Design the sequence.
């Protein structure tokens, strides 16, 4: 809920807005976010998640377990 609410407050409404934001955070332009890129994004959004919460959120989004979202 924290992630969703903060994304909305930063203008990431809907799948198109989230996709645009994720492309910005994709530093190596791989089309996927690594845990490092995801962590950086969560910190830039200032959601207030601990490192443990960031890792847990990443695992939730990394549905196939390949280390990327």
Sequence:
């Amino acid at each position: 809920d924290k992630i969703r609410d903060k994304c909305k407050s930063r203008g990431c409404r809907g799948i198109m807005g989230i996709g645009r934001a994720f492309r910005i955070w994709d530093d190596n332009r791989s089309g996927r976010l690594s845990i490092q890129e995801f962590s950086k994004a969560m910190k830039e959004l200032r959601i207030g998640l601990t490192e443990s919460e960031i890792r847990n959120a990443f695992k939730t989004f990394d549905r196939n377990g390949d280390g990327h979202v």
